[in-house]
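In the design runs reported in the main text, the only information available to the sequence generator was the tokenized backbone. The following block is the verbatim input for one such run; it is reproduced so that readers can re-run the procedure and compare outputs position by position.
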């Protein structure tokens, strides 16, 4: 497939996504994230399907359909058991490689698939870089039992506003987005959100789980170190 830029941001997404695909080696087991940036990673892997012979795990139905349409072999997480590398996008990346994810409502599956991998690689255009997580809002996947009760509990943790998405996750759950303002301590907020009954998963991914971040803009692609201790 040829480059099909419609804007600088689209071109940067493609550049970052394709750059990370170069890390994938023949025979690897690969976690495939969700979104318009990792889309290009999947396209790049699809262009080398026969050569690479990969076994992939998809984080969403959308990614599953893209990958299988390109001829990639996709299995369930349980079938794969363990992954060599997972590549995914993000909505925000701070200076310590903490991430906001879940703009596509897939962060629960994305967090599982990231944790299955020896190496977690993030691909973004430079507009995703932030001083502090927060402006995008923190996506929350919530059981469809008492979403308003959960939203109140999240407000009690400091969210000034909690929005309900009209979309559901691939798991059939409710999607919320909570606005905390600049998040000074992502690890502390992540722990507090994880303790709220009814939240299936929150969209804060700690930098200590990230190995590399590929950031692209008009000047090209940079590879930043993640926050995972080496
Ligand atoms: C989906 C995600 C995506 O990775 C995130 O929204 C980034 O998407 P895009 O690359 O389209 O900007 O977390 O749940």
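Verbatim output:
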């Amino acid at each position: 497939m040829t480059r099909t830029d419609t804007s600088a941001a689209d071109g940067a997404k493609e550049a970052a996504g394709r750059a990370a695909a170069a890390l994938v080696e023949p025979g690897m087991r690969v976690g495939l994230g969700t979104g318009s940036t990792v889309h290009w990673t999947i396209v790049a892997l699809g262009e080398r399907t026969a050569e690479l012979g990969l076994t992939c795990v998809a984080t969403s139905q959308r990614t599953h359909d893209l990958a299988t349409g390109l001829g990639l072999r996709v299995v369930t997480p349980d079938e794969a058991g363990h992954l060599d590398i997972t590549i995914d996008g993000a909505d925000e990346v701070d200076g310590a490689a903490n991430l906001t994810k879940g703009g596509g409502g897939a962060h629960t599956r994305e967090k599982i698939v990231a944790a299955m991998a020896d190496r977690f690689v993030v691909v973004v255009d430079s507009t995703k870089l932030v001083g502090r997580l927060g402006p995008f809002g923190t996506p929350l996947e919530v059981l469809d039992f008492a979403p308003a009760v959960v939203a109140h509990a999240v407000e009690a943790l400091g969210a000034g506003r909690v929005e309900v998405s009209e979309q559901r996750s691939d798991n059939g759950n409710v999607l919320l987005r909570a606005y905390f303002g600049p998040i000074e301590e992502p690890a502390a907020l992540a722990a507090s959100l994880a303790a709220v009954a009814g939240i299936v998963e929150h969209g804060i991914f700690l930098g200590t789980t990230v190995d590399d971040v590929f950031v692209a803009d008009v000047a090209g692609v940079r590879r930043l170190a993640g926050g995972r201790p080496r």
